[in-house]
TrEMBL record:
Lineage: Eukaryota, Fungi, Dikarya, Ascomycota, Pezizomycotina
Protein name: Uncharacterized protein
Top-rank taxon: Eukaryota
Provenance organism: Nemania bipapillata
């Protein structure tokens, strides 16, 4: 647990956080008013970003639903071609990560995020008209370039609005809205393929066409719905008064002292890479997304080929495990914020995944194996917001935060490549090597968290003895800052 508590204690609930972090000038806000301001931010920011993340996940993973609905046959995705199509998204997605958190600061979230969302919606729509494997793969690469700017910008934006011990739940809610809602894309896809023959098009093509149109519309709406950074001077504050915005800035500054970003310097930005723990967070992201992407790309196929369900049933059965994962995700996020811990939450998630993996892979009863999918999906996907909160809580400084967000998502993209490859065509229908790979990355995450926790303990003890200050950089010290285990 974090050691940076004052003698009176630092209450975890939002109301008490408001009391202890606001300045004298804004202290007249009552508990009720403080809660209202935070909930207003939640409704405007979390809901908007969450639904944009939903279409992001749908648009990068809907290829799995299209594949079993005729795409694989029509575009001749034989041999390793399906794996190539799924991983084609990720190299460009990884390469263009670092620039996104710089651009979002320069352009502002409203312009940056809404424009790239509408743009990849146009590409998605175009995927409904491709004729060859090469055309489809090329469009997946372009979508990777555009989506590279969304997730790191989104998590960076969220981290600037909330205190460290509000982020676990917020990242959880953000991911819940996105991943759980996107899980029902299987039901949408099942409906869209019944448009077979409409307009002279195959049913799988309508999956891309309709979902592309939805993405374009949401990108356009995002220009009006998204908000800017709390320290921004851009006039986008109709949902908060200037006094309320000042209150947000002061409470976050009191928590970690880095609301305002200093002038961008490439040296400061890249210097964050000298902290080995930034790369450890990335390694955890890699392990987490290897599993989450593998499930996104292959769970419908596993249900179809391994467990023996027909196409429609396989698409429909994807949704319940993700719905359960949403409940589980929010519960562990609340637990982490309530008790001010981060590493143990990641370990809990990985243990749940490690229980689900052998059940899904080796139990003789298909119904019990499907139960294993619930545990695996819950553990794997809950680790995405949990690991985001882990790194966000233990970092201060805007440009280090921006670098760490980009690094986390970049490693997450590498996990996407691995997730595209672990369940190979030659391993069907059992896919045992893929299951073993997921077990390996789960164990790796537990080990990395253990190493980080030991280092936090050592550094916190040195800080307690006055031997060092924590998280020093060009943006200064935050007196009393301590790492969170």
């Amino acid at each position: 647990m974090d050691k940076n508590s004052d003698k009176d204690g630092y209450a975890v609930d939002q109301v008490e956080e408001a009391r202890t972090t606001v300045s004298d000038e804004v202290e007249e806000y009552t508990d009720r008013k403080a809660r209202k301001i935070i909930h207003k931010i939640d409704r405007r920011l979390l809901v908007t970003i969450g639904f944009m993340y939903c279409v992001s996940l749908i648009d990068r993973t809907n290829v799995s639903f299209a594949a079993i609905a005729g795409l694989a046959n029509d575009l001749v995705l034989t041999g390793n071609r399906y794996s190539i199509v799924t991983l084609a998204f990720f190299p460009s997605y990884i390469i263009f990560q670092p620039t996104s958190t710089i651009l979002v600061r320069k352009l502002g979230p409203r312009i940056h995020i809404s424009v790239i969302t509408a743009a990849w919606g146009v590409i998605m729509l175009g995927m409904g008209f491709v004729k060859t494997f090469g055309e489809f793969t090329a469009l997946r690469v372009i979508i990777g370039i555009l989506e590279a700017g969304f997730f790191p910008s989104a998590v960076y934006l969220l981290s600037t609005w909330y205190t460290r011990y509000e982020l676990g739940r917020r990242y959880g809610l953000f991911y819940v809205i996105g991943s759980v809602t996107s899980a029902f894309s299987g039901l949408l896809a099942f409906g869209f393929i019944h448009l077979e023959g409409a307009g002279g098009l195959r049913g799988w093509r309508w999956i891309f066409i309709i979902e592309g149109i939805i993405t374009i519309l949401l990108g356009i709406a995002g220009y009006w719905l998204l908000v800017d950074f709390p320290d921004s001077n851009r006039k986008t504050w109709k949902f908060l008064s200037e006094k309320e915005r000042a209150w947000v800035v002061r409470r976050v500054n009191a928590d970690r002292g880095d609301v305002e970003a200093p002038e961008f310097k490439i040296r400061t930005f890249l210097a964050a890479g000298l902290d080995w723990r930034v790369w450890a967070y990335g390694l955890i992201a890699f392990g987490s997304t290897t599993m989450s992407y593998a499930l996104a790309f292959f769970l419908p196929i596993i249900l179809n080929q391994n467990l023996g369900y027909d196409v429609g049933t396989s698409q429909a059965l994807v949704a319940p495990p993700y719905a359960f994962a949403g409940i589980f995700m929010y519960a562990v996020g609340w637990l982490g914020d309530r008790y001010r811990m981060r590493g143990p939450i990641i370990v809990i998630n990985m243990v749940v995944a490690l229980i689900g993996l052998p059940i899904l892979g080796w139990h003789p009863d298909p119904r019990i194996r499907y139960l294993g999918a619930f545990l695996l999906v819950a553990g794997a996907n809950s680790n995405v917001p949990a690991s985001l909160a882990y790194q966000a809580t233990n970092i201060r400084g805007q440009w280090k935060r921006a670098f760490a967000s980009a690094t986390w998502v970049g490693f997450g993209g590498i996990g996407g490549i691995a997730g595209s490859l672990v369940f190979r065509e030659q391993d069907k229908p059992e896919y045992k090597p893929g299951l073993w790979a997921c077990i390996a990355v789960s164990l790796m995450n537990i080990i990395v968290v253990g190493i980080c926790s030991i280092s936090y303990y050592i550094d916190n003890k040195k800080a307690d003895r006055g031997e060092k200050e924590l998280e020093a950089d060009d943006e200064g010290y935050q007196p009393g800052f301590r790492y969170t285990y």
